């Protein structure tokens, strides 16, 4: 009881999440005969997990790719393919997000990489600025569903399930979600009369753009192909992504030097600094959580409502969507995995499937104010306020919820590829 | 001279974090090269990269404290009748106390592993040196929290990096 109370007080006061997880556990530790030194040991062990190494490397790879111009190449090709359709540039944005998501594991990172190039371009082409920002924020959510994915890495470590399997399981749901978002973008553009680029489709220009961008376009295949073919572990794939981006940037495109590499490192350090540290106290927190029987109690009270797996996933998703409005997504995954996993296993829900559902609800969390990180990034780029963009983002949130329902009712979509 | 030292110290975490991340990439790239190209498995690369990673995580956490970019829930603070600055002063006080405990716990762990030496499994590095990052980074973090609070009260600088500031940095 005291444990939960201290946790909530810290949370409400705005104590950083990693400390919020640590304080109640520390209080319990001090009032127990366990030596204090074990606190330091737990913090060390919590982050001393090999699969976590993939997180900063995927962030770094994304940072290098944008600086090397690989991201721009990808956008150019997408533009040559669908630029002239209704809402052409907006659809290009979603497609480019999908492509970038297959290299990067972060939602806001995807918005930053794609949005910083395409939000201004959409404005130039006559799209309303808030629509462009909304499309980029929504497309960016695919960053965590299409593998690689930072929340999947964290979930895999906490739930002891294969991260490679999670990456594979995310592929079809990611393509489904991307298609749904493209559909919504097309319908909105059609209704509002956002025309595509007037230039007709030119086969020669199209082939030229693909040829010019061949090394950039190959990036996702190098990264994901290695994992899916069973050659690389996710960590190795993240290193391959960094090295490949460096090779393309330094040798082939000659766009980056030491200065830009250093800046990319700095970006990765800054972004990861506030994030991964949460894993340190999370393990510590999880132990005391279990000691206080809190997961069991929550499981019992939820099971009093329903024992049907689909109903349970619907309830959990609703709770997660509400939490996602004011909690940062990765910390939500870290806090809730140890709480909900015993229940999920008890009901016979596949933990891989549950991981995908968790990631999709996190996508919604990226878009819902007051704390919607993707909105913040898009606002930073476009200079709009969160209120302006969040109104435009509503149809996209509805779309993702539709996708979430489809995935809950048809677990085969997540589980099909790993069943082989 | 003092100004130079100060500006150097303000970049301390950034330089350390970037360097350990770069080293980590190099070590693992070497591992992949040896395994897939030369067909030689390296025994030490995974361990050293894990240690570099732990150092990276905690040093960059201090970097995040310096920049005010740690993740917190700020929603409720808006609804409480107390001004934000007092609330966050209390929040940061809790943070400092927690870190104080971690520093003590970390030093105890380091001391224990110095008295009864424990070595890493493949490189036989005394673990005490690796554990050192826990008290070190958390002590550094305390200084950064105090520095940020001081600047907030003295110069009215924002205590928590405005979300848009973080976003702009990511977008740059």
Runs of chain A in which pLDDT lies below 50 for 5 or more consecutive residues are: none
Q: Sketch the major β-sheet of chain A.
A: none
Strand content of chain B: under 5%
Quaternary structure of the protein:
heterodimer
- Low-pLDDT segments of chain B: 163-172
Count of separate DSSP helical elements of chain B: 8
Structural class of chain B, by secondary structure, is: mainly alpha
Return the string of H and E elements of chain A: HHHHHHHHHHHHHHHHHHHHHHHHH
Helix proportion of residues of chain B, in percent?
A: over 70%
Helix percentage of chain A:
over 70%
Number of strands of chain A: 0
Helix and strand composition category of chain A: mainly alpha
Transmembrane segments (chain A): 53-70, 82-103, 166-189, 210-231, 237-256, 268-291, 311-344, 356-384, 396-418
Subcellular location (chain A): Cell inner membrane
Function (chain A): Part of the tripartite ATP-independent periplasmic (TRAP) transport system.
Family (chain A): Belongs to the TRAP transporter large permease family.
Gist of the model:
The complex is a heterodimer of chains A (420) and B (172). Chain A has 420 residues and is mostly helical. Helix content of chain A is 78%, strand content 0%.
Give a description of the structure:
Chain A: It is a multi-pass membrane protein. The complex is a heterodimer of chains A (420) and B (172). Chain A has 420 residues and is mainly α. In chain A, 78% of the residues lie in helices and 0% in strands. Chain A starts with a helix and ends in a 5-residue tail after the last helix. The model of chain A has no long low-confidence stretch (mean pLDDT 90). Chain B is mostly helical. Mean pLDDT of chain B is 86; it is low at 163-172.
